[in-house]
């Protein structure tokens, strides 16, 4: 993962941080928009995708809401466009971690 994303400038002591902790990113890497940051160190990310409709032979837009761990060194906020990477299960609903902020909301 060191080659995919830039390490953040801030340093944290979070054990579930992909840069400063012991957790490893493997599997899918997705891009989405943060729609909620009300939980402690967890954000909800909306990931848009298209699905082919066999009956009408065209594509339709869909989205998924994925919960991801938000390390203190990255600290994504609502409206930020982020990359999230799949990890081992961190909790019952969290299986992704925020790896990088592509664009911050102005």
3D architecture notes:
The structure is a single chain. The chain contains no helices and 5 strands. With 106 residues, it is an all-beta fold. The protein has one domain: OB fold (Dihydrolipoamide Acetyltransferase, E2P) (Beta Barrel), CATH 2.40.50. Strands 1-2-3-5-4 form a 5-stranded mixed β-barrel. The protein is elongated, with a radius of gyration of 15 Å. It starts with 28 loop residues before the first strand and ends with a strand.
Our count of domains comes out at 1
Uncertain runs: none
From N to C, what is the helix and strand string? EEEEE
Gross CATH architecture: Beta Barrel
- For the record, give the distance between the C-alpha atoms at the N and C termini, rounded to a whole number: 28 Å
Radius of gyration: 15 Å
Percent range for β-strand residues: over 45%
Mean pLDDT: 92
Strand order of the largest sheet: 1-2-3-5-4
Strand segment count: 5
> What overall form do the CA principal axes indicate?
elongated
Q: Helix/strand/pairing class, anyone?
A: mainly beta
Question: What is the C-level CATH assignment?
Answer: Mainly Beta
Q: What is the helix content?
A: under 10%
The CATH topology is given as OB fold (Dihydrolipoamide Acetyltransferase, E2P)
């Amino acid at each position: 993962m060191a080659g995919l994303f830039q390490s953040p400038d801030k340093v944290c002591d979070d054990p579930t941080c992909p840069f400063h902790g012991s957790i490893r990113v493997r599997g899918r890497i997705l891009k989405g928009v943060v729609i909620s940051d009300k939980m402690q160190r967890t954000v909800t990310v909306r990931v848009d995708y298209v699905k082919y409709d066999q009956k009408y032979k065209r594509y339709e837009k869909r989205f998924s809401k994925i919960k991801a761990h938000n390390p203190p060194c990255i600290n994504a906020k609502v409206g930020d466009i982020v990359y999230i990477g799949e990890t081992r299960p961190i909790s019952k609903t969290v299986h992704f971690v925020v790896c990088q902020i592509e664009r911050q909301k102005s």
